[in-house]
Amino acid sequence: GNENHDLHILFFPFLANGHIIPCIDLARVFVNRGTKATIVTTNLNVPLISRTIGKANINIKTIRFPSPDETGLPEGCENSESALAPDKFIKFMKSTLLLREPLEQVLEQEHPHCIVADMFFPWATHSAAKFNIPRIVFHGLGFFPLCVLACVRQYKPQDKVSSYSEPFVVPNLPGDITLTKMQLPQIPQHDKVFSQLLEESNDSEVKSYGVIANSFYELEPLYADHYRNELGRRAWHLGPVSLCKRDSEEKALRGRETAIDGHECLKWLENKEPDSVVYVCFGSMTTFPDAQLKEIALGLEASGQPFIWVVKKGSKSEDDKLEWLPEGFEDRIEDKGLIIRGWAPQVMILDHEAIGGFVTHCGWNSTLEGVCAGLPMVTWPMYGEQFYNAKFLSDIVKIGVGVGVETWIGNIGGEPVKKDAIEKALKRVMVGEEAEEMRKRAKELGQKARRAVEEGGSSYNDFDSLIEDLRSLSH
Ligand code: UDP
Predict the structure, then answer these.
(1) Which segments within 161-227 are labelled E, that is strand?
(2) pLDDT digits (tens, 9 = 90+) for 227-258
(3) Is 19 one of the annotated active-site residues of the chain?
(4) CA angle, corner 21, sides to 16 and 26, nearest 5?
(5) Ligand 1 geometric centre to CA of 48 (Å)
(6) Would you say 194 and 177 are in contact if contact means Cβ atoms under 8 Å apart?
(7) What is the pLDDT of residues 9-33, one digit of tens each?
(8) Phi, psi (5° rounding) for residue 17?
(9) Of the residues 260, 282, 316, 346, which should be mutated to test ligand 1's pocket, given the most ligand atoms within 8 Å of the CB?
(10) Where are the annotated coiled coils located (predicted)?
(11) Complex ipTM value
(12) Which of 11, 59, 437, 463 lies in the 20 to 30 Å Cα band around 299?
């Protein structure tokens, strides 16, 4: 309905694909419920955003990213995708502090009723206060990773162990979650401004009006309750945002320009058995050394399952040889494997009935997209809160099998994960009794996810609570 057309919400996602995409999906949820929505971003992020918006009635307001003179970054570096090296990343994060003034100009022009900004813009709370509007945090996570992050930060269990590999239990959290120091987000912090920014980012959940979680109640009731009642945060769950209403064309358009035509993908999947194909993708930022790619290729082949494998490496040009592939791999595989070099229409692929398993780095978006598609998953966390999400899939909802990565070190120059480990994990999620049980649980969760966003569902209703809260504030 259009009962909320008097409300205007401004969205300000962090400049990274894994933050921008769910934020647009979230804006779409608001627009579908009759609210006016505007996305604020910088010029070079507009193509990705307008593609993802498709035909939806979401406005874009652009602000200027500071110049190379101001940032010390190369020209054109406006998305964290182009700032992956640690020194660049620090400069990139510090540059975002300069977006405050331009954002406030937009607030002055647009007079929104609320601003939904990423946790990485902690200063947005002050900007909002200046204009007397509430600031809400959205950075695309669910309650489980939010709870673990908050408990680790509050109780510092990592300070009580003697080595990086000694396990500790996350205190005051249901489920006896064990972690090691090697599984905590590792970000270089030797820069004062940068570490202060991180510190304030972590606080922004507490200091803002509330938090929107990309989740649904039935997925993680213990943690939804814990976050609100024990940690005392105001929060709404409006997800999974990837299930927001949009037509099939818009589904294929979500994110960057794809390296493969959506129809071509569907055609390839057409003659495959239901639940037989493995989809392998490690999010928007991960690249692997050749030695690791080779092991993945061999593991996929040994599993005997057909696969779609997304590789973020090399160019898109057709004559670019896949030199890191094992010898004769392509001839042996023939139609059994599809390698996509670049950006894949992930949600469209996952939703196809032929897909039966997902090898994922456990970014929260991918995790939730796998849940929505009802898929058992092989978990291969890389960094950040992905180790928490992997635990969630294997230990809490029990639809994941670890490939055996226990530390982020392994992903940056340690020994590659071997073919045998990959093959073993794949077999566990694809064939046999354990696989069937996981698939059954995953499909049930997928159905619950769809019910949650339908009229009367838990996320649908929580949207109403949020609107009610916002209205009571403006009175
Ligand atoms: N994605 C995609 N195609 C790709 C890679 C990623 O559509 O080839 C999408 C994926 O569906 C998800 C997002 O990009 O919505 C990645 O977010 P996630 O939190 O999983 O990982 P991140 O990229 O932030 O590490």
Answers:
(1) 168-169, 178-179, 210-213
(2) 999 999 999 999 999 999 888 778 778 888 88
(3) yes
(4) 125
(5) 13
(6) no
(7) 999 999 999 999 999 999 999 999 9
(8) -55, -45
(9) 346
(10) none
(11) 0.99
(12) 437
Return the best residue to mutate from 284, 382, 389 for the ligand 1 pocket (most ligand atoms within 8 A of CB).
284
Query: How far away, in angstroms, is 229 Cα from ligand 1 center?
Result: 31
Q: Is 363 in the pocket of ligand 1 (CB under 6 A)?
A: yes
Give residue 241 CA to ligand 1 midpoint distance, Å: 13
Residue 118 annotated among the catalytic residues of the structure: yes
Nearest to 306 by CA among 339, 328, 283, 331: 339
Region class of 392: left (phi > 0), else alpha (psi between -120 and 50), else beta: alpha
- Cβ–Cβ under 8 Å, residues 98 and 83: no
**68-74, Cβ contacts within 8 angstroms, sequence gap of 24 or more:** 70/95, 70/98, 71/95, 71/98
Degrees, nearest 5: CA angle 276-300-308? 55
Indicate which residue of 118, 275, 351, 462 is catalytic.
118
Tell which atom from ligand 1 comes closest to the C-alpha of 16: 24
Burial (CB count <10 Å: 0-12, 13-18, 19+), residue 239: buried
Report the alpha-carbon distance of residue 378 to residue 376 in Å, rounded. 7
Using alpha carbons, select from 362, 376, 360, 391 the residue that is nearest to residue 147.
Answer: 391
